Amino acid sequence: MTDKIYNAKDIESKWQNRWEETHAFKVDEKAKGEKYYLLEMLPYPSGRIHMGHVRNYTIGDVAARYRMMRGVKVLHPMGWDAFGMPAENAAIQRKVHPADWTYKNIDYMRGQMKRLGFSYDWEREFATCDSSYYKWEQLIFTRMFEKGWVYKKTSQINWCPSCKTVLANEQVSAGCCWRCDSGVEMKSMSQWYFRITDYAEELLIDIDDKLQGWPERVKTMQREWIGKSHGANIDFPIEGSDQKIQIFTTRPDTLFGVTFMSLAWEHPLVKEFAKKNGKEKEVEAFIEKSSKIDHKARLEDTYEKDGVFTGAYCLNPLTGDKVPVYAANFVLMEYGTGAVMAVPGHDQRDFEFAKKYNLPIKIVIQPIDEALDPSTMDGAWEGAGTMINSGEFDGLKNKDGIKAVSEHLKKNKLGGSTVTYRLKDWCLSRQRYWGTPIPIIHCDKCGAVPVPEKELPVELPHDVEFTGVGGSPLSRVASFVDTDCPKCGSAGKRETDTMDTFVESSWYMLRYACPRYDKAPVDPKMMKYWLPIDQYIGGIEHAVGHLIYFRYFTKVMRDLGMHDLDEPCKNLMTQGMVYKDGAKMSKSKGNVVDPDDMIAKYGADTMRLFSLFAAPPEKDLEWNDKGVEGSHRFLLRVWRLVMDHLDIDGETKESPEAARWRNKTVKKVTEDIERFHFNTAIAAVMEYVNYLYGVGVEKIDRLAVETLVLLISPLAPHAAEELWEKLGNGESILGKSWPTFDEAMIASDTLTIVVQVNGKVRERLDIPADMSDEDVKQSALSNERVISFMEGKEPRKVIVIPKKLVNIVL
RNA sequence: GCCGGAGUGGCGGAAUGGCAGACGCAGCAGACUCAAAAUCUGCCGAGGUUUAUCCCUUGUGCCGGUUCGAGUCCGGCCUCCGGCACCA
Question: Which 354-413 positions of A have CB less than 7 A from strand B?
Fold first, then answer.
């Protein structure tokens, strides 16, 4: 009987077709039941699905199918994060148009996903490179522009020489480009920025208030990335001028210990001072040298710390002391005010700098049990202590001094408490073709003018030459560039940079609530219905990039009046990476396992089972070909067991033991799926199968077999559907409800109690479940083996844990 | 340097403070077979003692502590992984 053989290929395509024909995963807001929005991070359509995708999407699929079986309305969409560099590189190298390359990849990968049996509502699919999608992104941009939430400025920026485009801070990892790993250079360029720093405080506060369902690890990373620090701004008057230098410090208590001032080389006052004081030559040389320190060298600390005297002096606002102003290469223009008051007695960097340039060291914080002497110190004292040499503040604990000095400054209009964030504005422009065009027209008279809504989308022109050199490809397309100013009608030029692709993924989760809505980016009604995301699943690598951006965009769109949601996602799960032979799968290492090969060899269900069983979702997974075979073997075991029982009638002849096993297994699998412990859920089903084989073929009833099939259906949906049908059930298993369990039936008549003597297990007693604790204690104490281990001693204490254990302490 | 997370058999991994190693992989032995594969059964941390399938000791990175009882809680280290890092 060929029918008895498990033929994954035929079964899987049969059910995939069936699901498609019946629109099995189409979700209808009008149907009954509670809603659940399950989203996995979109893939980039690189050409083929890889094992990381398989794992990510299988985890999501189990969660989705399980809830569907519980009668929950699950919104489970899929689409494509489709703009990006690889498409453009393909165009440069192989003369394929990025659009053709991308849509072809999408078609192939959609097919792969269907062959994996994922329960997506394909009717909601979109690609972010569809102009019907990015049109709305352009609208959001213009609205932000009108509010002043996006702006253009010239500054030092990360530049990837290989990708030939600028990068956001979040796209630089260890000084290298996130995409191609080239060393990132610093360049001064005029770029577009989102004013994300305006939201720094809300992004920070909401981590604690609204992200209870997020992993602590991700939340910590976001807090650090935002990097709030409390301190004070202090104005230092410049000698012989009305100007002031404003500095930021977290240690206003050390203000009396300032002996010099350090400015970043880019600080506007540096050149001014040099000119005024005839120091241009030295300062220019210093700027030239400092500007060459790239991101990587800064991180690795491979450059020498140095500085140059600018010739200027400023005055300590409290003491009136005259202090020299230096430019120093370790001061960052992007943090605080780009200027630092130097306190060598109490800051290690300033200490080293002072030693190198022979600057005075002044002690203003005295530790409790040690007298500091500037002439013998070999490092700064950065710890706590009592303020000295600080005028009216002498004697204060320095912790109190921070507040006291700040208040004093404020009262005298010399500065005051402030907070600073490490988070910087998001540089969004890219000098590439394959991205959303920035909808701005530059006009000589009107400046930067947003494209009016009725003219959106600004579509990417198709006929473009891809050379890989010479700036934005769009800048060479005259028919795109030349246009009229929407405001005054005179000749204008279109912006030719495109948006960072992280912009598309910053709001797609909202669009899925209403993917075809044509009046605005989102339909507030549908948004209110589906959002926030109940469960989001993706890689940990997006902890500070995408996962901050999509929170930011949600808040921006809220403040533009498009909806009223504060946070896009309630629960986040970050899955581990897939490894093989101890290394991340990659073509260059030659350790890639292709999902297509696995489907051809074992079928999708086997691959799904293995990727769920081999490790808990949040941990890294080591691919193991033998393990895959083990998962396949398990599926065959289930298949055979069910096939041997197709004809059993519905009469229940379930023994108490069989009932216990069934209820226990349902309970365990249900609870484990709820908490994403799929590996132990599968282990529980395996145990159940082992039990059923153990009791013998003739003793198994229909209830057991059907329960088994239902339990595996979120995990191995194709095999489950086929077995369900073969068992004579007409409708799809999808319409069938998840099995329930009865706690009372899990309880057994007898229990095994562990008896310990001095904490060591010495005996196991089988007792009736309803035996009293006192009786349990007595039967333990009268047990022969137990007595022999008591060595004739009287127990000092006997601990009885009901239904579990007796510990006799001698 | 700072902040997280982890460390359990040959391997992946299980264990609300209560029998450490579920389940699987690999391995070993056996059954079936002419044989092999598949399948099924048993064993499978280390050491010792018996070799009856009994039993004992020891064992969850290291050192202490709390507890009748610690893989689990607390303190101090070590190692690995991740994040941040001249942030004033």
Answer: none
